[in-house]
């Protein structure tokens, strides 16, 4: 089993007992020539990881094929790839190394597997503008299909054994209970391909060892993990698209060599085409973007493969614009926005309808701008009502593509075409009136958000693209910032037709103030809202926003990450608790944004609305890329006190967080120095914040079992919903301070996990809903480290799962709700424990099974 190890073992050998083959391995690796530049590159990464652990971290694994060999995975901070100059000694994304002793007994770093260098969109960095590409690259330009899956690396561990990894890990997910990791599924497909080609793993290992190559493939398997586009049966498996040298410098084989290798070893070749000039690449990709397909299929985009030249092949731009030396392999990408944004909307509205009920009124109006989406919503509501069972796996990422394909097939039917005509006749929802015209007069762009969604980043990009006015509330340091902010917006509207009122505007009173300001103009200025609505569980929104605040570092006037006390997370919670949903009447146009979207997709969504409603010209990919670069490089003009650092965590920190939310748009935090100086209080308990919509999970389960439940059982649930007593911030209590010192070891395990800058995600399954006349709970089983965890999966996460006592596992649950405030939530623990001991021995206790309800969450110290 591949699992992180600490402390580091001696090179090659694990443990004190050395098996007989260890000596052979040592002799083998002693004979390997390690390039000094490669060794020094890894040394530089080691030094940087110690000096700046937020920039670079590594995790050590046992190689599944030979457990006595340890392989280290290096992971760079994704956010920092865009910094110029780069803070990293390499731009590699996916790098696995091994410490070996050479013939003289010195430890050297061997690169075992190497992914591509980070490649950027057109215009995203200075060396990927069309002009710069003409200057420092040369033909051929090979355009390969941007595969719709997850990356897999295949390399030679030894001349007879292979190493198969995902981008940053290998082997089973730590602490997993049955769920396969990306690396495991990739290895399973590798064996299928080799068998079909009449080849063996040993033969492939020998070839990769001799060539010193890493085979780079895309795992495309909808039965394992669905992405945006469907994968046909004949295209399911590993799509080979690269053969990289296992060296620090990025060198990859030409596409004909890769395609021949794919055919020889049974992989699926990656579709490609070759062009001779950058203008041809530009014209070709623009035409494909217009058509929306290539060779009869929708696609995500192209990766363009070329190489760096010196002197420049054309133009006056110096080759030094590129950070790569002459002769280096060089990639850039051209990504298409559609139909991805629309398909993503369909996925999200389906999840919303499954959780809130199959009614179009439950979908945010901003997502109904497109006739296709309106039609989809009407259709899927009918499908949910007709047969909800066909959506059983939807929230686990299963059946998303099949649902979309059913809709598209229905859309082509007589019934679908008739409904489509009707949908096109219905005016789009645009807020106050159906005949709103934002192309005349003034416009205020009004974000509706919480900290960390990316509203300022989008605002900076829009300002760069269109020259809009941009007023930031966070730039105002006065005690009463709100009136000054409104005054500044009004002043900016005198010189700009469009002004971005950059503030969270999460409260109705903030939005009313902007509407009042708009009335000062003749005709009144219109309001276009960019609404980051919360269709996701609040814990998911909280995690995403918290991670972004950590990633951006000090690029904010006052709200900085507090890595010790986590008080920035308390600030986010205060916003989430107080946020008031945007109503149609509060804006003239509502554009629904997606908290989960990466920056480039969020910008594409916002720009699409600007083009549609304000009549602006659609920027080309290069200008979009340049806007992304400007937004990522943004630095605030001023910085106040570190709002989230006030008082650390605990009582004083939480008070500061609440005050910060109360006066969130002011740069100066309100907490007094006296309060800030208080020592932070420890948490009352540690729990896993469950990212789940309990009402959306429990409601359908009870509805499906209503015929087998007495009326009082159903009434309890109905009362919980009616009285709004269903937990909005559900959690799984792991250990309480009242159980100390008895459970001190478990307390320390939780504390260690919570202390990580980006704690790992855990996954678990909700198995039953159990309730009495006083309280309702959901039982928790199969706790593991999440297979697709974006956080830091290291020894603390593994130790947490492996050392969780059985008696603790038996009591794990989520309290769904209590009859009234006089019922202590702790009663749920006793209810679950007793019910698990003997489900038949407790009259007046009801239970309903939950099917395939998997939930994720992070461990956090909680106070209430």
Automatic annotation (TrEMBL):
<keyword id="KW-0436">Ligase</keyword>
<dbReference type="InterPro" id="IPR027417">
    <property type="entry name" value="P-loop_NTPase"/>
</dbReference>
<feature type="active site" description="N6-AMP-lysine intermediate">
    <location>
        <position position="146"/>
    </location>
</feature>
<dbReference type="GO" id="GO:0051730">
    <property type="term" value="F:GTP-dependent polyribonucleotide 5'-hydroxyl-kinase activity"/>
</dbReference>
<dbReference type="GO" id="GO:0005634">
    <property type="term" value="C:nucleus"/>
</dbReference>
<dbReference type="Pfam" id="PF09511">
    <property type="entry name" value="RNA_lig_T4_1"/>
</dbReference>
<comment type="similarity">
    <text>Belongs to the TRL1 family.</text>
</comment>
<dbReference type="Pfam" id="PF08303">
    <property type="entry name" value="tRNA_lig_kinase"/>
</dbReference>
<feature type="domain" description="T4 RNA ligase 1-like N-terminal">
    <location>
        <begin position="92"/>
        <end position="341"/>
    </location>
</feature>
<keyword id="KW-0819">tRNA processing</keyword>
<feature type="compositionally biased region" description="Low complexity">
    <location>
        <begin position="667"/>
        <end position="681"/>
    </location>
</feature>
<dbReference type="GO" id="GO:0008081">
    <property type="term" value="F:phosphoric diester hydrolase activity"/>
</dbReference>
<dbReference type="Pfam" id="PF08302">
    <property type="entry name" value="tRNA_lig_CPD"/>
</dbReference>
<feature type="domain" description="tRNA ligase kinase">
    <location>
        <begin position="444"/>
        <end position="585"/>
    </location>
</feature>
<feature type="compositionally biased region" description="Basic and acidic residues">
    <location>
        <begin position="656"/>
        <end position="665"/>
    </location>
</feature>
<dbReference type="InterPro" id="IPR012387">
    <property type="entry name" value="Trl1_fun"/>
</dbReference>
<dbReference type="InterPro" id="IPR019039">
    <property type="entry name" value="T4-Rnl1-like_N"/>
</dbReference>
<dbReference type="GO" id="GO:0006388">
    <property type="term" value="P:tRNA splicing, via endonucleolytic cleavage and ligation"/>
</dbReference>
<dbReference type="GO" id="GO:0005524">
    <property type="term" value="F:ATP binding"/>
</dbReference>
<feature type="region of interest" description="Disordered">
    <location>
        <begin position="631"/>
        <end position="681"/>
    </location>
</feature>
<dbReference type="InterPro" id="IPR015966">
    <property type="entry name" value="tRNA_lig_kin_fungi"/>
</dbReference>
<dbReference type="GO" id="GO:0003972">
    <property type="term" value="F:RNA ligase (ATP) activity"/>
</dbReference>
<feature type="domain" description="tRNA ligase phosphodiesterase">
    <location>
        <begin position="614"/>
        <end position="861"/>
    </location>
</feature>
<dbReference type="InterPro" id="IPR015965">
    <property type="entry name" value="tRNA_lig_PDEase"/>
</dbReference>
<protein>
    <recommendedName>
        <fullName>tRNA ligase</fullName>
        <ecNumber>6.5.1.3</ecNumber>
    </recommendedName>
</protein>
